[in-house]
Amino acid sequence: MATASDRQPIDGQPAVRLPQQASPTHDDLESPPAAPQPRRGRRLLIAALTAVAVAAAAGGTARWAFTGDVPRGVTVLGLDLGGLARAEAAATLRAHLAGDPRSTAAVQVRVEGKSAALSPADIGLVVDVDATVDAASRGRPALFRDRVVEPVIAVDADLLDAALRKAVGAVGTAMRAPAVTFTGLTPKAVHPKPGRGLDPRSSAEAVKAGWLSGEPVAVPLVELHPATTAEQVDQLVETVARPAVAAPVTITSERGTLTIPPAAIAKSLVLTGDRTGLIEPRIDPKRLRAAVAPGLAEIEVAAADAKFTFTGGKPRIVAGAAGRGIDLTALAPQLLTAATSADARTVKAALTAAEPATSVADLEKLGVTEKVSTFTTRFTGGLSSSRSQNIVTAAKQVRGALVLPGKTFSLNKHTGERGYAQGYKDAPVIVGGHLQPGVGGGVSQFTTTLFNASYYAGLQDVEHKPHSYYFDRYPAVIESTIFWPDLDFKFKNDSPYGVLIDTAWTSDSITVSMWSTKVWDKVTTEWSARRNITSPPTITKPDGPDCISTSGLIGFTQDAWRLFHSDGKVVKREKFTWKYDPEPRFICGGATTD
């Protein structure tokens, strides 16, 4: 008789009836009915449900893997960006880079045995976050292992190249750039030669590849071939250089005609290779303007710059005026075409407005608003004496001089040679320790007055030399002589404002004033006591026009301190020291004792 266990499913399978040993009769006790065979429809239902469950599970996994813009399992610089939206991934990566010292630390580079450290900020070296996130967003998820995406690195190749050349200096072998030069009107070919050196593109690739490795980056040197070949240089000689100087080029305008001679063309025609060795023929407008300046002056109307003048002892600005001129920069391509033509060697030019180089607004920005210093020295002889006339001549030349911030004023450069042609006369000068007549004598007094005006304006002393002998019309130590061209007086405008120089004179005095904006409350001087005092010797010289008699002056050494005052206290001190020789007592006539 079968038991219940004989009919129960085993491991989820339908039960199987065991073979009977004997058929029961109706008189036997009733037994449980046999389990029915499973139907085909039920089996299909179970299979379908199972498939649905598997598909549902797979779908959930897919949704998880593709959540966000960046697939799961993607890392950048060890940072897991999987499942993040682009904006979130970019923000996360930027925050990570901000805390990574490698992104701001100096990049160590090596170039042919030379080492240098470059700041990433100085060469535009960065991780391109957006491009990196874009790269991370592409591809399939990595469910069982990380997919590493390398960061996208960007660098400014030109900044890197400049920084490398500055840091390591000359490396490799210089390339000989091609060129066509002129000896007179004869062109000469300069053939190129390859070199070995830094190449911006190769350097950039090396730095990008090695930046975040933590190791020094080896920047290679590559063979550099000039972009223009020797054959092309020879061709330029025949097709550009020779035709250009074969005949003049003519510019026509409404105000007249300008002829550019072959010599001026040769001076302005540029046939020199650039840093890559590429020759691009061109006319240099600045060189051309200098070569034909007299002819241009007859055609053009020069613009007048705005300028300072003095009215009632105070500066005021006078507006400039526009001029009319030929724009040689715009005309240069046409001039090059004409110069290389056999017959069409005339170019028509229109005169265009030429604005002043200096406007009223430019001068107003300089802050020339108040008198910041003034200094006066006195002389004898009245304005009729040659010495006084020399002082006034120099004062007239300097009046109205404008010294821009950061610029240096040179008295010799401003006036040029002070000779007879410039209106200067003979007056006593010190030559080799002796007083004798010389052209421009007395200008040292103007120099001393100008020096003191700049001194008390607090401007930087660049060059000055006190006299060999001390004259009591000058302040001791802080005075200056001058002699063309060997001795000069210079000061630098080290203030942020313009400095305008004004001069004035009377029959017995010369005054120099500086107009600007005050930087210091005041500038004063303290002197030490004189020391090492020496008496003058007596020297007899032959009588004549070269002998000037004197009563003699003592010699001594003395110090002077320039004190800069601000907010009621001295904030800076400058020391000046000078040793004066005793001026001999010169006697004219009799036997020479010198």
From TrEMBL:
Q: Name one Pfam family in it.
A: VanW
Keyword 4Fe-4S set for record? no
Q: Which UniProt keywords apply?
A: Membrane, Transmembrane, Transmembrane helix
Spell out the residue ranges making up region: Disordered.
1-38
Q: Which ranges carry the YoaR-like putative peptidoglycan binding domain? A: 238-346
Record's keyword annotation contains Calcium: no
Entries under InterPro entries matching the protein: Glycopeptide_resist_protein, Vancomycin_resist_VanW, YoaR-like_PG-bd
Instruction: State the signal peptide span.
Output: none
Bilayer-spanning residue ranges? 44-66
Listed PANTHER family? EXPORTED PROTEIN, EXPORTED PROTEIN-RELATED
Name under which the protein is recorded: VanW family protein
Which organism encodes this protein? Answer: Actinoplanes sichuanensis
